[in-house]
Write a structure and sequence with these properties.
heterodimer; A: about 110 residues; mainly beta; seven-stranded mixed beta sheet; four-stranded antiparallel beta sheet; B: about 110 residues; six-stranded mixed beta sheet; 11 strands
Chain lengths: ~110, ~110
């Protein structure tokens, strides 16, 4: 059981480039989400999905797109990378978006935009 | 929306001593309060959680207390060990809105 798998682990982008961070889970979880983690800021929600075909914005969605074509996958797209998007990104999943459902995090993706 | 404040941002304790991390939340509708531990280079992992109908919960050396009236909850680690060194996050959830995290506490265990 792999849990939540993120790729790539590390990435350096130039300003203006686009890329996709991949996230997959094998626990048949309905709820998936993306967070970014910055020093002193904790974890901030970017986008989330409560099931295939359904996505919604979190606290900091600007500059990011998501889609959920399958239950397993929830990719995060940066359309035109900016230095402000330099961060550590975590994908997470849980059985459903209800209180007390354990959220499982991936190992993180370190992104640097130069 | 929900706002979660976490203190202190850094906590250094001697090995074997106890550590306490405190969080406050703003939304009285929040009903689930998990704590996550994040080791260097890893994703956060759930270590303990508490629901709003419970005042205290223990799991070996870790305990969490909740005061709904005051809207604050705390993580207590007793007999600290070197492997307890990590960043700890509290969070609050009120159902469909998902989790709101505190900004984290860097716990340092001094040998």
């Amino acid at each position: 059981n792999a849990g939540v798998t993120q790729t790539p682990k590390f990435q350096v982008l130039k300003t203006g480039q686009s890329m996709t961070l991949q996230c997959a889970q094998d626990m048949n979880h309905e709820y998936m989400s993306w967070y970014r983690q910055d020093p002193g800021m904790g974890l901030r929600l970017i986008h989330y999905s409560v099931g295939a075909g359904i996505t919604d914005q979190g606290e900091v969605p600007n500059g990011y797109n998501v889609s959920r074509s399958t239950t397993e996958d929830f990719p995060l797209r940066l359309l035109s990378a900016a230095p402000s998007q330099t961060s550590v990104y975590f994908c997470a999943s849980s059985y459903s978006l209800q209180a007390s459902n354990t959220i499982y995090f991936g190992e993180g993706s370190w992104l640097t935009v130069v | 929306g929900e706002n979660v404040e976490q203190h202190p941002s850094t906590l250094s304790v001697q090995e074997g001593d106890s550590a306490v991390i405190k969080c406050t939340y703003s939304d009285s509708a929040s009903n689930y309060f998990p704590w996550y531990k994040q080791e260097l280079g890893k994703g956060p992992q759930l270590i303990i959680d508490i629901r709003s109908n419970v005042g205290e919960k223990k799991d070996q050396r870790i305990a969490v207390t909740l005061n709904k009236t005051a809207k604050h909850f705390s993580l207590h680690i007793t007999e600290t060990q070197p492997e307890d060194s990590a960043v700890y996050f509290c969070a609050a959830e009120r159902g469909a809105d998902g989790l709101t995290f505190g900004k984290g506490t860097h716990l340092i265990i001094q040998p």
